[in-house]
Amino acid sequence: MTGRLENKVAIITGAGSGMGASMAKLFAKEGAKVVAADLNEERLQEVVYAITDAGGDAKPIRVDVSNEGNIKEMFEFAQKEYGKLDIVVNNAGIMDNMAAAGDVTDDMWQKVFAVNTDSVMYSTREAIHAFLPQKSGTILNIASVGGTNGGRAGAAYTASKHAVVGLTKNTAYMYEPDGIRVNTIAPGGIKTNIAESMKGVDEHGMKRQMVGMGLSPEPGSAEEIANAALFLVSDEASYVNGVVMPVDGGWTVY
Ligand code: NAD
Questions:
Q1: Annotated catalytic residue: which of 49, 82, 122, 157?
Q2: How many CA atoms lie within 13 A of 252 on its CB side?
Q3: CA–CA dist 177, 189 (Å, integer)
Q4: How far is the CA of 133 from the centre of ligand 1 (A)?
Q5: Residue of the nearest CA to atom 23 in ligand 1?
Q6: For residue 252, is it within any domain?
Q7: Of 9, 62, 98, 124, which is most buried, counting CB atoms within 10 Å of its CB?
Q8: Is residue 254 part of a domain?
Q9: Is 4 among the domain residues?
Q10: Domain enclosing residue 157, as ranges
Q11: CATH number, domain containing residue 90
């Protein structure tokens, strides 16, 4: 039986943990060759071992997605190892500390934007350069329900993910005639290690956020995000372009 991503080469950032690890495993199981990128080399290595032990094909690369040079190296690595590129998943991201605009520090704003947003722009630019000559390719960005709603995180995270949604729509529109598809998943509350990136929680922001977050259904799993991602990056979604797909147990409609 052939996999749903047979003969495809995929880059996945943040592949060392949570949703990125689940997507890397599922894509490899479906026949993709996976470039697994993360800052955390130890966790990344475990994910790559799990994939290769199961008979899949994945290669790790240490990347800080907020560093444009690292992003360029990641694309060069994919070409060097696998000779082509079909799928790019911009998944790596961090939380803020829930601070509202009145309390957000420049440091927090810049750090969250560097990791969550600048990274997606650098990677999208490289992906477009790789995809244009071949007139095919797909980008999947992992935003958040914080990229569509105001009551899900602090000012920095919310704005950073709204920017990812905007970049997704613009890129989908601009390159539709070139056979390139760009979509976004907006996950709800998912059981991962993301809370590790949340330091010095702002009391006022957190109290206010609990109103929105208190409505959340039971948290979902990283595998549930990977299943939606698999569809969006596969050829089965050939006519799906520019969408922001909530995968949140219905939280968005509450
Ligand atoms: P996670 O912390 O389990 O995984 C994120 C991975 O990104 C980690 O392995 C981490 O090492 C890596 N990473 C962080 N900064 C990096 C950098 N600068 N360069 C390279 N890698 C880096 O979290 P997750 O929940 O799987 O997060 C994946 C994406 O989903 C993020 O963009 C996050 O904002 C988004 N998201 C998460 C939730 C949730 O509830 N977990 C909800 C909505 C959106």
A1: 157
A2: 16
A3: 35
A4: 31
A5: 194
A6: no
A7: 98
A8: no
A9: no
A10: 9-245
A11: 3.40.50.720
> What count of residues does the chain have?
254
How many domains are there within the chain? 1
pLDDT in tens, 168-213: 999 999 999 999 999 999 999 999 999 999 999 999 999 998 888 8
SS3 27: helix
Q: What is the DSSP letter of 247?
A: E
Distance in Å, CA 93 to ligand 1 centroid: 4
Distance (Å) from CA 135 to ligand 1 centroid: 30
Atom of ligand 1 nearest to the CA of 195: 2
Angle at 101 between CA 100 and CA 105, to 5 degrees: 95
CB 119 within 8 A of CB 71: yes
Q: pLDDT band at residue 215, thresholds of 50, 70 and 90?
A: confident
The reported pLDDT for the residue numbered 18 is 98
For residue range 112-152, list pLDDT tens digits in order. Answer: 999 999 999 999 999 999 999 999 999 999 999 999 999 99
Q: Which pLDDT value is given to residue 254?
A: 85
Structure letter (DSSP) for residue 86: -
- Statement: the pTM of the whole predicted model exceeds 0.90: yes
At 27-51, the pLDDT tens digits run 999 999 999 999 999 999 999 999 9
Is 72 within the bounds of a domain? Answer: yes
Encoded tokens for 159: 């704005």
> What letters, b where the CB count within 10 A reaches 16 and e where it falls short, cover 163-173?
bbbebbbebbe
Atom of ligand 1 nearest to the CA of 189: 40
DSSP 115: I
Has 157 been annotated as catalytic?
yes
